[in-house]
Each structure stands twice: as C-alpha cells, then as structure tokens.
C-alpha cells in the first residue's frame, strides 16, 4: 500500500514531505509500526516509483475490500457529481 500511496502522491503533485506524512499516518495503524523503518523505506524507494505501478485503481480495490460501505458512499458521490455536471 505504501507503493500505492507514493505513486498517487507523485501523480497528484503532492510533495515528498506531505507524502511522507500520509505514509506515516497509514503505517502507524499497524501494530508493528516503526517510524525509523518507514523513513528508511521512503528514503530508499521514493525516487524509484514508476507511473505504471500501483495507483488509484489499486487504492480503490483495496478500499472496496476493506470497507465496502465507505467505498459505496464515495463512488455514489462521484457518480452523482458526474451526472450533475453532465
């Protein structure tokens, strides 16, 4: 999931420092979170991210599996907004 978050940040023009904050917030939810290890991973891999890798599609697939109710709520909003604009 961290690769996914890094790719999304790169695609959306989110700065490395803000991306790092997002990754730490996500990683902190794990029982074995280690701040230094996460920093080391980011430092070692941030510049290696590629556009043809995990991104929004993967993020939404994970969300759909992990929290189907929330996934439905946001996809309904997206559909309704697109319909309204059309």
What do you see in this structure?
7% of the residues are buried. This protein is globular. With 86 residues, the chain is mostly helical. It has helices at 2-12, 16-27, 35-45, 56-66, 68-85. It folds into two domains: 1-46, no CATH class; 55-86, no CATH class. Helix 1 packs antiparallel against helix 2 and helix 4 (56-66) packs across helix 5 (68-85).
Secondary structure layout plus pairing:
Blueprint: H1 2-12, H2 16-27, H3 35-45, H4 56-66, H5 68-85
Helix pairs in contact: 1-2, 2-3, 4-5
Mean pLDDT figure: 87
Gross morphology:
globular
Order of helices and strands: HHHHH
Proportion of helical residues: over 70%
N- to C-terminal distance: 33 Å
* Main sheet: strands, sense, barrel: none
- Strand tally: 0
Number of helices: 5
Number of domains: 2
The fraction of residues in strands falls at: under 5%
Structural class: mainly alpha
Q: What's a concise summary of this model?
A:
The protein is an all-alpha fold.
Task: Record keyword descriptors for this entry.
86 residues; mainly alpha; 2 domains; 5 helices; 73% helix; globular
């Amino acid at each position: 999931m961290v690769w996914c978050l890094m790719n999304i940040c790169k695609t959306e023009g989110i700065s490395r420092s803000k991306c790092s904050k997002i990754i730490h917030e996500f990683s902190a939810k794990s029982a074995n979170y280690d701040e230094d290890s996460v920093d080391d991973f980011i430092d070692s891999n941030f510049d290696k991210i590629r556009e043809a890798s995990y991104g929004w599609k993967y993020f939404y697939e994970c969300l759909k599996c992990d929290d189907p109710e929330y996934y439905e709520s946001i996809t309904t909003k997206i559909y309704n907004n697109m319909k309204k604009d059309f």
